[in-house]
């Protein structure tokens, strides 16, 4: 293994170099911090670095911080060499990104032991990252064509929509279904059908730009994201090119095959502002294309004035919803997989619309995100959750950790930490009973700012959890860098965990990775005893889902709290 020694004192530097060479290391030396950073920032950087704290140009702490900003490179194990061994100094070094430290004058045996531990950590992290990359590839790509699958398509469309909103640009979603593909499968067999799908995927890719996304949704269905669309005609041009490309014959296993496709097109923001709506409307348009004779495209159509009117009414109603006390919280318990006890609760927002009834969050939160209303809505939810948790405690129920979702917009507010503190003080709730759930996207939106916020929350004793882990930008480096207490396995992996080996492997990898970093793991969307038992076999810590209880109003949640006060006989009781 190559190792860097960065030490401005020549005597210490030569002594260290002699020791490491004797122990079998290939040594690179630097006499100051700038040289060290240049080496570690270059190609084929050493994976192990011994940095003196006090050096010219850049000290060891500055080098540490710069290294840890690089989240897309192999992990570098940093051993800080220092004559400062006070507790505060050690904390400062570890906070800057050092993995370990050794005090001057150093003992050769102690140094050897610490380097051996560092090598093992590097090996383990390389194994974890490799396994994670492989599992991520399997989880996000179609095994047959190698294209992004439904999961990755949804994630990319989410990102493109966020970009389109910020830049006020349009984009198009195309839903493509091969015409009469079933006949080929049934008459020539699945091997021929699979071969045809591979060639179709290749031909479709040739019709698109690198910035566009082509995905296979399953079966003979494909979807496309077209960015930078200035008018509907841009999408029509691509659709015509696709239909023309597919009109040429395919040769599969000595069979000359002819096939066509029906294409549906939806446009953002005209035909929808979220992933589900855009895909649904493109799918609807595709079926209209099939009804119209196949081998054609159809743009989704709906009277624009109706859409605009409905949207304006919803936005206006949401602005008044807080004042009129129409927003409510429902609560879903978190249960320990070891004891079966209720150990926490997630607060989930609902809108009791005067005309439309109880609306789930997906029917109004996307609009709230776009209009900026997400800030007052989220702040209301935070305050209400803290007040309710304190009320349960005051009524004599066992203290629970209550978790509240935090939006990216909310996290980016300069007053966010102060808002959390005020909510806790107004409710007289101890911070240790509050957990904030962030998305992976929120973490990487502004890493330096988010890191500072998480440090302040940690000092307050507020817990932080990553929600929907595994479907976004999951990264071991982010888990290590940010002060996180737990991760929540996304329900998409839990749903088929007992029947899909890929989902099972991903869940197992998440649990192992999180536990290696001393993080708690919570599984979402548990609906069956089989799922629960499988998660328990993985040593997952907690779960929530319909198997225990659907999200319920506060008055109904009291019944679950009553159950929690009664003596336990072991096992789980389903309230679904």
Note down, in words, how this protein is organized.
Mean pLDDT is 87; it is low at 303-308. An eight-stranded mixed beta barrel has the order 13-14-16-17-18-19-20-21, surrounded by five helices. The chain has a five-stranded parallel β-sheet with strand order 2-1-3-4-5, with helices on both faces. A five-stranded mixed β-sheet has the order 7-8-6-11-12, with helices on both faces. The protein is α/β, with parallel strands linked by helices and 576 residues long. It has three domains: 2-139, 3-Layer(aba) Sandwich (Rossmann fold); 150-302, Reverse transcriptase/Diguanylate cyclase domain (Alpha-Beta Plaits, 2-Layer Sandwich), CATH 3.30.70; 318-565, EAL domain (TIM Barrel), CATH 3.20.20. The longest helix is centred in the first third of the chain and has 33 residues, at 108-140. The chain is globular, with a radius of gyration of 28 Å. Strand 11, helix 10 and strand 12 form a beta-alpha-beta unit. The protein contains 22 helices and 21 strands. Helix 2 (33-40) packs parallel to helix 3. It starts with a strand and ends in an 11-residue tail after the last helix. The relative contact order is 0.07.
The fourth-level CATH homologous superfamily of the largest domain is EAL domain
Categorize the overall geometry: globular
Instruction: Indicate the radius of gyration in whole angstroms.
Output: 28 Å
Give me the CATH architecture of the largest domain, please.
Answer: Alpha-Beta Barrel
CATH class of the largest domain: Alpha Beta
Largest sheet: 8 strands, mixed, barrel
Give me the CATH fold name of the largest domain: TIM Barrel
Please give the share of residues in helix.
Answer: 40-55%
Biggest sheet, spatial arrangement of strands: 13-14-16-17-18-19-20-21
β-strand percent reads 15-25%
How many DSSP-defined strands? 21
In DSSP terms (H or I, runs of 4 or more residues), the helix count works out at 22
